TrEMBL record:
The protein, known as: Sulfurtransferase TusA family protein
InterPro entries on file: TusA-like (IPR001455), TusA-like_sf (IPR036868)
Superkingdom of origin: Bacteria
Family, similarity comment: Belongs to the sulfur carrier protein TusA family.
Cross-referenced CDD domains: SirA_YedF_YeeD
Amino acid sequence: MMDKDAKPGNDVPEATLWNADILLDARGVACPLPVLKARKRLAGMAEGKRLLVEATDPMAAIDIPHLCQQDGHRLVRQDRREEGDHAILRFLVERGASRPQSD
């Protein structure tokens, strides 16, 4: 689920939109390591704290949102920006209360 309230251009500084408690730099790391590192980092965080994940692996665009859905975290926002010959994917994830129960 994405936060639709604050967007660039609504007089909210870009840095405020991406405010996080912890940065996980997963640039240059291949699948499945970005999502595994994100899961491990989130497990050690308190509910409501925010993790900013930066990755270059295109699979992170699928894996990180799936992690949020599967583990009960909130995907606050995500974006993609071109930097040289590759893209930087950013994900702001808010730590959920606990893992949802499976059936």
